[in-house]
Specification:
304 residues, Ribosomal Protein S5, domain 2, Alpha-Beta Plaits, eight-stranded mixed β-sheet, four-stranded antiparallel β-sheet, 10 helices, globular, binds cytidine-5'-monophosphate
Length: 304
């Protein structure tokens, strides 16, 4: 992975950074209830993985984005561009950026790819524009972009409470995972819109997961996987049941949906076994990845 460089404090023109922005899985996700502000109260254990997008940020006068992905909007709806606009406004800077986004993480997949890209833009522009803001101040902008964005400013392994944005780092253990994605996006808001009180739980499963991670036992982690949004997502995508069953049939110790789906992931005994499971599952209609968890930052950068 790339190291953090020390850049000159006074930024010049035409400076450029390249960044990697990792996705995440939710090892546990519990919906505790509905809040007065319309969001849901969560207890979720989030873990960065080594499936990552690549971004290049280049100092410019305007805000502009180009992307390799036809599924990502290249206009003002793009979360990475919105991040740049929000930081420009909050920091009252008179500068722009050209973002080049090489998309590797599936879009609207429950893996937080768009949120990680947004966090990468905040961290990158903090350097490029010479702002020197602490992470806590960047987090105030991050949360206006989406509840997952603050997590990606640090990454690693964390318990998220509130709307998912209140973070407590937790100790973990390296894991090898297999991701399976059906190749079609799923709207987060649509999944949350199907949540009923029968799907609420009390936070005990997130606690069980943190204990399993502390015990550093992949078998215990696999047995503790839980996602309270699965029933809601399966209402929209019944094939999630088949994807989860296929992971277990191919040798995964356990499997669950990530975030609001539709990606499903399984825990393997080792990275070698994750690759074997991936090979067994690879079929034309599903995207499959063998990945490792990442304990360090979700966003890494270097001057280019
Ligand atoms: O935070 P983000 O913008 O990604 O959330 C997308 C949608 O998911 C929200 O507009 C809301 O409908 C739903 N959501 C929720 N409770 C949360 C997080 C998201 O209901 N804790």
């Amino acid at each position: 992975m790339l190291a953090f460089p020390v850049l000159p404090t006074r930024p010049g023109r035409h400076r450029r950074l390249t960044l990697t922005a990792s996705g995440k899985v939710n090892l546990a996700l519990e919906v505790l209830g509905k809040r007065a502000d319309g969001y849901h109260e969560l207890a979720t254990v989030m873990q960065t993985i080594d499936l990552a997008d690549r971004l290049t940020l280049e100092d410019a006068d305007e805000l502009a984005l180009t992307t390799t992905s036809a599924e990502v909007p290249a206009n003002a709806d793009n979360l990475a561009l919105r991040a740049a606009g929000a930081l420009r406004e909050a920091a009252k800077v008179d500068r722009g950026v050209r973002v080049r986004l090489d998309k590797r993480i599936p879009v609207a997949a429950g893996l937080g790819g768009g949120s990680s890209d947004a966090a990468a833009v905040l961290l990158g522009l903090n350097r490029l524009w010479g702002l020197r803001w602490p992470l806590a101040r960047l987090a105030e902008v991050a949360v206006t972009l989406g509840m997952d964005v603050p997590f990606f400013l640090r990454g690693g392994l964390a318990l998220g409470t509130g709307r998912g944005e209140r973070l407590t780092p937790i100790p973990g253990t390296p894991l090898a995972l297999v991701l399976v994605n059906p190749g079609e996006p799923l709207s987060t808001a649509a999944v949350y819109g199907r949540v009923t009180p029968a799907m609420y739980s009390d936070g005990g499963r997130a606690r069980t997961m943190t204990e399993a991670l502390r015990a550093r036992k992949p078998t215990r982690v696999a047995a503790s996987l839980y996602n309270g949004l699965e029933a809601a997502a399966m209402g929209v995508r019944p094939d999630l049941v088949r994807m989860r069953a296929a992971l277990v049939a191919a040798g995964a110790l356990g499997a669950a949906m990530s975030g609001s789906g539709p990606t499903v992931f399984g825990v393997a005994r080792s990275f070698e076994q994750a690759r074997q499971i991936r090979a067994r599952l690879a079929r034309a209609s599903w995207g499959c990845w063998a990945v490792r968890t990442v304990s360090g930052p979700a966003v890494r950068m270097r001057a280019a």
